[in-house]
Each structure stands twice: as C-alpha cells, then as structure tokens.
Amino acid sequence: MHIYLHALSETFAALTGGRDGIRVTASAAARLLRESVRPYVETVTLSMDETLAAMDGSQQRGVRGGAVYDYLHLVAARKAKAQRLYTLNVRHFQAFHRAGDPEIVLP
Q1: Residues 75-91, mean pLDDT to the nearest whole number
Q2: What is the Cα–Cα distance from 42 to 3, expressed in whole angstroms?
Q3: Which one, 2, 4, 45, 80, has the greatest CB density within 10 A?
Q4: In 3-state terms, what secondary structure has residue 15?
Q5: How far apart are CA 67 and CA 87, in angstroms?
Q6: What is the DSSP letter of 102?
C-alpha cells in the first residue's frame, strides 16, 4: 500500500487542529502516524517536474484552487500504479477522475 507523502501532513493537521471534535497533541499525532501508519505503507513523492506537469494538465480535468491538493494525491496514486485511492472525500475526487485513474473509494 502506498501513501502520498503530503497525506501525513494533512492527517497531522486534522488530528491536531480540533476539527470534527478531534484534537490531540502534536507529539501524540506524530506517534500515531509513526505507529499506526508508517509500518503499513510506502510513501510516494512527486518531483518538482512531476508536480508541475500535473499542474499543466489540471485545467483539462477542471482542477482549480485548493482542489490541486486532492488532485496531486491522485497523480501520486497513478505514479504508484494503485488500483484504488481511498479517501473520505470521494466527491472531491470524482470531479476530476478520468478513465484509467485508480478507483476512488471510501475506506
């Protein structure tokens, strides 16, 4: 299983930010990620050139503004040759999903 490296930052922000009634300390969030995520996934990164190429093609997919963050998760999933991309925001990804992309599913 793969995870786009940026997802660690997003998860950390969600755990420490207090949204949705969840708020843990920074050290607890880091420990949770280290113990509950890291042993089970490999990280996928995008180079600057890969990121810029994705941004070049984003208009064709209707990606604007903050949607670029979700779109880059999809680009990283394609890079990892993933069959599925798991997200709690299926609707966000469906807007720019195309044939040949990993299936977008709830965990």
Answers
A1: 95
A2: 6
A3: 4
A4: helix
A5: 14
A6: P
Distance CA 107, CA 105 (A): 6
Cα 34 to the chain's mean position, in Å?
17
pTM (predicted TM-score)? 0.88
Is pLDDT larger for residue 26 or for residue 21?
Answer: 26
Q: Write out the two tokens for 107.
A: 């965990």
CB-based contacts of 79, cutoff 8 Å, min separation 6? 44, 46, 50
Rounded to 10 deg, the angle between the 48-58 and 67-79 helix axes is 120
Minimal CA–CA distance to 72: which of 42, 94, 93? 93
> Tokens representing 11?
């998860």
**Structure tokens, 97:** 């999903």
